[in-house]
Amino acid sequence: MLIFEEMAGNMSRFGSPAQNGRPAPVTLRGMTLYPNHLDRGAQEALLPELRHVIAAAPLVSPVTPWGKPMSVRMTSAGQFGWVSDRRGYRYADHHPSGTEWPPIPESVLDIWREIVGTARLPDCCLINFYGEGARMGLHQDRDEADFGQPVLSVSLGDRARFRIGDTEKGGPTESLWLGSGDVMVMGGPARLAYHGIDRIDFGSSDLLPKGGRINLTLRVVT
Ligand code: MD3
Ligand code: FE
């Protein structure tokens, strides 16, 4: 009884019974996690769309304004892309190479439409790629104009240890694993919480042929 075993697995992971074939959403510090929101087929269907974006706007290894290389490689789709270099962090209307950012794939916008709604669509989809050993230190996302707009994240590939704290630096934090297909929405009080990725469990998923993790964050920038 494979279905029964999958349900039991979900129950031990999330502590609540499956609903409509998916574990119930989990709220932590004002964020809502939708475990396994995308099934394997939906995850696989996103990959060619993302490869298309990355072919037009290649992943870059950004440096911080202090000149420290980031271990995460990044690119974006949409009207704006998030960039970092010696001049600072900011949203830019072109890729660092000078090319236009490609449009956000409809299949990615559909996830926003389904979970957030249609009042406003995101104008940036930041694509983070985590290879073996990549991490992201605790930070706030505060380069957007309206913190009333949520941020939606989609995890694909290897699972990652996500950490979230308070809206002030140095407070207590909590962590949870993000697995492939998990979708998270940060709105309300969670929107300005410190957060980061401690580590990825490299090789834990077979979604990406060479391993690693892709995280998409959909943002309303303007
Ligand atoms: C909580 N990315 O790109 S996504 C980022 O997995 C970023 O690549 C991480 O943090 C990643 O800025 C985490 C989940 C996330 C995104 C935005 C948030 C959590 C957030 C904004 C406010 C609070
Ligand atoms: Fe962030």
Structural summary, described in words:
The protein has 222 residues and is of the alpha+beta class. The protein has a single domain, classed as Alpha-ketoglutarate-dependent dioxygenase AlkB-like (Jelly Rolls). The protein contains 3 helices and 15 strands. Strand 6 and strand 7 form a beta hairpin. Residues 139, 141, 195 line the site of fe (iii) ion (FE).
List keywords for this structure.
222 residues; alpha+beta; Jelly Rolls; 7-stranded antiparallel β-sheet; 4-stranded antiparallel β-sheet; 15 strands; 18% helix; 32% strand; disordered N terminus; binds N-(carboxycarbonyl)-S-(naphthalen-2-ylmethyl)-L-cysteine; binds fe (iii) ion
Task: Present the secondary structure layout.
Layout: H1 2-14, E1 18-19, E2 22-23, E3 26-28, E4 31-34, H2 40-56, E5 73-78, E6 81-85, E7 88-92, H3 106-115, E8 124-130, E9 136-139, E10 151-157, E11 160-164, E12 174-178, E13 183-186, E14 195-200, E15 213-219
Antiparallel strand pairs: 1-2, 3-4, 4-13, 5-8, 6-7, 8-15, 9-14, 10-13, 10-15, 11-12, 11-14
The protein binds N-(carboxycarbonyl)-S-(naphthalen-2-ylmethyl)-L-cysteine and fe (iii) ion.
Oligomer: single chain
Principal-axis shape equals: globular
CA-CA gap between termini: 50 Å
Give me the CATH superfamily.
Answer: Alpha-ketoglutarate-dependent dioxygenase AlkB-like
Give helix and strand order, one letter per element, not per position. Answer: HEEEEHEEEHEEEEEEEE
Query: Helix content range of the residues, please?
Result: 10-25%
The total of helices stands at 3
How does the helix and strand content classify structurally? Answer: alpha+beta
Could you give a short account of the major beta sheet?
A: 7 strands, antiparallel
Question: Average pLDDT value?
Answer: 92
Number of DSSP-assigned strands: 15
What is the name of the CATH architecture? Sandwich
Biggest sheet: strand arrangement: 3-4-13-10-15-8-5
- Sheet-strand content, in percent, reads 25-35%
Whole-number tally of structural domains: 1
Say what the CATH topology is. Answer: Jelly Rolls
CATH class, please? Mainly Beta
Work out the radius of gyration: 17 Å
What ligands are attached or bound here?
Answer: N-(carboxycarbonyl)-S-(naphthalen-2-ylmethyl)-L-cysteine, fe (iii) ion
Question: Would you identify the regions where 5 or more consecutive residues have pLDDT less than 50?
Answer: 1-12
